[in-house]
C-alpha cells in the first residue's frame, strides 16, 4: 500500500497531472503537516476587541488551504485526451480546475461519465434556467450539509443571479429567499424529494404543474435533485474540499 | 401539449419503440383505464377462509400490471444505434428491457450517460463483488423506500447470491442478514451515508479500512451509495414502476 | 445457567415439543454452528456473469435456515391440551407451526393469551376484511422494519389478495400500492398512529369516517395497529426468525 | 347510526353497565355539553397575582371531568359473569373501575383477552418487580406521549415506590431519575425498543445480561415494552381519558 | 480547583447564602453521598400487593431530595443587595427560593439579567395572560423533556388555572388539553417554533392573527418560546433539580 | 390597528429613531412594495453563459435590501438615554446598528434586558475566547437554520479568526472545520444540547472536562447555546433580516 509522493494541490492553479501523484497525502489517523498548517483559530485572537471601530479585525489573508482534495489515497490516472482538453478549458475560463474533477481523476471512465452527466444536467437544454438548476443544487446540499457542494454551487448562485444574498439564503434556509412562486414550488419539491423521497406522490407533481412546470421540467428538477443527492454523498464520504477560490466569489 | 397515444408497456416484453409513443397515458388528476384495471384487492376476497388447509388461496395470477412506466408524459425519442443495440441485448439476455431504461429513453443523451455510469459502477472492475454492489443498492433503497430499486435490485441480490432470503432481509432490515463482518461494515457505512451524510468522518473510513477495504473500495462503496441515492429519487419523483417479472425471480 | 441441548428447529416441520428443548442454542457472543452454516453470500460468487443470458443464475436452493427461532434461551414448556391441539391444527392446515407460536411456547399462559388476542383481532368478526387487517399488519411492520412480521404477513397479503405485487408494495412503501380510497385512508391512519401516535386527533378519526369506516371499524383498525406495534417489538427484541416457507408463498 | 343516550361516566364511580349505554356522547365535529363543561382555563384568571404569598391560588376544585371515556361511539355490551366480577373487584379495591376497562367493554372477547394479557404481564410471576414493570410502562408511554397511560401508570410508579418524584421523573425524562444501574439499563433498552425497534441487536441483549437480567427477564422487559406500545396506540387513537382520581394519588 | 465545602440545599427553605458555599458537592464521576441517599426504588417493594384495597400503598414520605441544585461546582457569589431582597421576597411569598435562582447565584451579573428577563416576559404587561405564558413554558419544555421546567412551570399552570388536570395534560401531550381555539393555536405555534424553527413562515403568523392575536402578542409568544428553549438547555446541561415542593402543589 | 407610516430601514445606516416609525410596513397577506422590489432572481438571467471566461458574471450590485427588519408591525418606542447612547456607539464603531436591536426597540425593557444578557454572555469575562463563543453561536444557528444569526455571527467568526473559511465551514457543517480537539468537543456538546437537550448527561460534561474545560466554562458554553436557541427562535418567528453589510465582511 505504498503511497505516491506527490499530492495534487489545486487551490488557485493545479499542478499539471503527470506521473502518478496521489490525491491525498494523509492516511487515516496519522497527523499530517498539511492539516496542521491549516489555520486553527487561535483560542484568544489578539484582535479581540469586539464591537470596536469599523475595522477591528485583521484583513482576511489570502488563504491557501493546502489540504488534499479528498481523504482517500487514490493515485491520479493519466488524463485522457478529452479530459486533458476539458481540464485545460476549465483552467482557461475559470482560472482553476474544480476539485471534484481532480477527485474523480484517478479513473478516466468514472471522470468521463461524471462530466458527461454533470454537463448534460446543469448546462444542457432545459426549461429550467442555469440559475434555477444551481438553486436546486444548493437547496439539496443544504439539507445534506455538504461543504463541497454548498461552497461551489453557492458561489454559482451568487454569480448567475448577481445577487450575493440569494446564494447565502439558499445555503442557510431557502425559505427566507425572496423568490417567485414558481421557484419556491421548485425548491419545496427539491427539499421534499431529498428528505422524504418515499412520500412524493402525484399531488406533488401536480403542484409543480400548477406552478407552470411541464412534465419534462419535472424530470429535470428530479434529475438535478437526484444528482446532488449523489454528489453530496460522494463528497461527504471522501471529505472532498472545495477550491478556496470559491469562497470570495461575488460577495 | 398534445400527448402521443401509444404507451410503452413493458411487462414481459416491450413493444418496439417506434414513432413517438408516450411513456405515460395518464395526466395528473385524470383517471385512466390502465390504473382502473390495476387489481385493487377486493375488500372481501372470496377465498377468505384463513388458517385453512395448505392451499386455501387462489393461485397467483399471471399479473399484467399495464400501468405506464412513469407518471410523466415524456414522448419516447428514437433510440440511437448504440441504445438500440443495448435494448436488444437486454431483451435477448434478460428477456425484457428494464423499465428504468424505458423511462430515460425520451432523451438519448440522458439515457446514454445513465447507462454508462450504471455499467461502470455496477458491472465494472472493483474490489467489491457484483453481489456486494447489489447489496448496497438494496440497503440504500430500503432507507429511501424506493419501490422500483428494491424490486429490481432485491431480485439481483437473490439471483447473485442464490439465496432468496438474503434479498428479502436486506429489503426489510439489513441488520437481520447473516452476513460476514466485512459486508456488515460495508452496509453500516452505506446506510449512515444515506441517512446522515453530514456525519460521515475519518472514523467511518477507518472502520472500513479495518474491515479490509482499500481506499479505492471506499470510493466504490461511496459511489454506489451515491448512485442509488440519485436513482431512488428519480424513481420516486416519477413513480417509476418495475417490470413485474422481477417479483417472481429466484424465490 | 445450563442450557438444554435440543433446539426446536421449525423450518418446514417442527419437531414435536417434548422434554425441555431450548428455543435457542446460541448465547450472546458465542459463535454457533447453526449460524455459521447460514449462507453468507460469498464475496465473489462463481455465478458472477451479470446481465448474461436469461438464466445466468443458480437455481434457488431449498434453503434450510436452521437458526434458532429466537435469540433467547427459553426452554419450551409442555404444551397444554388446548395449545397442543392448536399446534396440530396449524401443522395440518398450513403445513407448519408459525415460529411466533414456538417462541411463546416457553409459557402456556403467555402463549394462550397471545393466541386468543391474535385470533380475535385477525380472524374474528369485523367490518374489515381479513386482507385489510393483513394490509395494516404489513404497513405497520414496514415502519418498524420488523423482519418476522413483514415476512409472515407479507405472505398473507399475497395469499389473501392473490396479488403477489400487493404484498411486495406494502412491504416496501404502501404509497405505491394501487388500492382504493378507503384502504388508502386506512393505511395512512395506521402509519400515522404507528409513527406519531401522540398526534392522532379527532380530525384523523373524521377522515376515516368520511372514507366509510364506522366507529367500530376505527377501533378495529387501531387495535390491529396496536397489536403489530407490540408484536414487531417482541420480534425485534428477541431476533425472532420467520419460517422459511413463507418466502416462497404466492410469488 | 342512532346513538344510545346514556354515557358511562366513570370518574370516581362508574354507573352500573346496563342496557346499551354508549361510551361516547360526542360525534366528530359536533360540540357537546360534556366537553363544553370541561374547564377551559380562563384567558385571564382572576387569581392572577403571581409570585404572591404562599397561597395566592384558588384551591384545586374537586375536578369532575365528565367527558366520555373514548371518542368512539361504541355501545357497552353486557358484562360477562367473569368481567362483572372483575369490575366489582376493581370497584371494591381501587374505588373505581379503570377507564381502559370501560373502553374495551363494548365486546367481551376483546375485554377478556386484554385483561388476561395485562394481568399476566403486569401482575404475574417475573424476575422484574411490579414497580419495575410500571417503570417500563411509563418510560414507553413518555416516548409515545400517551396521556392515558402516563396518568394511570405514573400513579402506579408513585404508589409502588412510595416516591412521588420517581413517577414524575419517568413521565418527564427517565434519564433524570436516581435509579440503579440495573434499572437504568432496563429503561434504556425499553426506550430504544420503543423508538427504533429495528436497531435492537445482540449487543443490546448482552447489555441487559451484563446488568443482571436473565433471558427470561429480557423476554418480560420486551413483552411489557410491546404491550404499552400497543396500549399507547389504542388510547391515542380513541382519545381515551384516564379516571381523574389518578391525578391526585401519592403526591 | 479546590471546592468549597458547603452545598446550598434548597428543598423547602434555603440556607442563607454566606461565605462561598458551592452549588454542587459532586464532581463528575465520583459517587457522592447526596446521590447515594436519593431514594432508589427498591426492586421489590414490600407493599407489592397491586390492585388491592383502596390504600395498599405506603403514604408518600416527606421527600427530601438533598441532591445539589446543579451538577457543576460553582461557588455561590455574595448576593447583591437587589438580589438579596429578591431572594427574601421569594422566601416570604412562595416559602422557598426557586432553585434556578440558586443555580445562577454564582455570578450576580448573570443572575440579575436572568431575573430581569424572566420577570419582564412572564410577569410584565402583555396581551397574554400569565396562565397562557405558563402554558407556553410547559408545552415548550415538554418537547425538550426538561425536568426542571416541567416541574416548576407545570405547578404554575395548575396553580394559575386552579385545574390540576390542565398542568398534567400540557406536560404529557398538550393536544389532549380541553383548551379554546385561541390557546390551541398559540400552543401549536409554540411547539412548531420549538421543534422546527426554520419552517415558521408568514402563514404561521397569519394563523395566530386569525386566532385573535395582535402582532405584539405574536412577539410575546415567540419571546416566551425562545426563553424556555434557552432555559431548558441551561437546565439540561447542568442537571438542574427543581425544589421538591413543586411536586405537591395544587394536586 | 392603524399602522405608523415610517419604516426603519437599516441597511448601512439607520434613520434616526423618532416619532413612532414602524418596524414593518407589511401586514400578513398584503403584498408590499418593499418586498416586491427585493431582487427576485430573473428566471433566465442575461449573463447565462456558464463555465465561460474568468468573469462571465455581472458585478455584484451594492445590494440594498430595503425589506423591513421584521415581519411584525411594532411601532418603535422612544429610545431610553442608555439605549440611545448604545445605538450611537454601534453606529460609530460598526458603522451600523444591528437589526436585532432595531427589532427589540419597540419596548425599552425588552431591549435593555436583551442587550444586558447579550453583552454579558458574548463579551463578558469567560474562559472561552470571544471567537469560541461566536463559533458556538454559529454551530447552534446552523442546526436551527436561522438566517439572521448565521449571517451576523458567521461574519463575526470570519472577523475574529481572520479566517474566511472557518466561518463558512461552521455555517455549513462544523464537522469539516480544521479546529483543535478542545473546540471540537465544545461544538459537539453545543450541537447535542441544541438538538437533543434531554439526552445530555454527566458523561457529556465529563467529556468537556477531559477536553480542558472547567465547570464554569461548561456553564458558559451551555449559556451561549441556550441564548442562541432563544435568539434563533425569536428571529425565525419574526422573519428577522440581517443588515446586508454582514454578507461582505472578511471574505
Topology of this protein?
6 copies of one chain form a homohexamer.
Chain A: H1 33-37, H2 81-94, H3 99-104, H4 108-123, H5 130-143, H6 147-161, H7 164-173, H8 181-195, H9 202-210, H10 215-238
Quick synopsis:
By secondary structure, chain A is mostly helical. Chain A has helices at 33-37, 81-94, 99-104, 108-123, 130-143, 147-161, 164-173, 181-195, 202-210, 215-238.
Number of helices of chain A: 10
Rg of chain A, nearest Å? 20 Å
The description of the largest β-sheet of chain A is: none
Structural class of chain A: mainly alpha
Care to describe what's here?
6 copies of one chain form a homohexamer. Chain A is mainly alpha-helical and 251 residues long. Chain A is 51% helix and 0% strand. The first copy, chain A, is built from 10 helices and no strands. In chain A, helix 5 runs antiparallel to helix 6, helix 5 packs parallel to helix 7 and helix 8 packs antiparallel against helix 9. The longest helix of chain A is centred in the last third of the chain and has 24 residues. The radius of gyration of chain A is 20 Å and the shape is globular. The N and C termini of chain A lie far apart (43 Å). In chain A, 53% of the residues are buried. The N terminus of chain A is likely disordered. At the D-E interface, helix 2, helix 5, helix 6 and helix 7 of D face helix 2, helix 5, helix 6 and helix 7 of E.
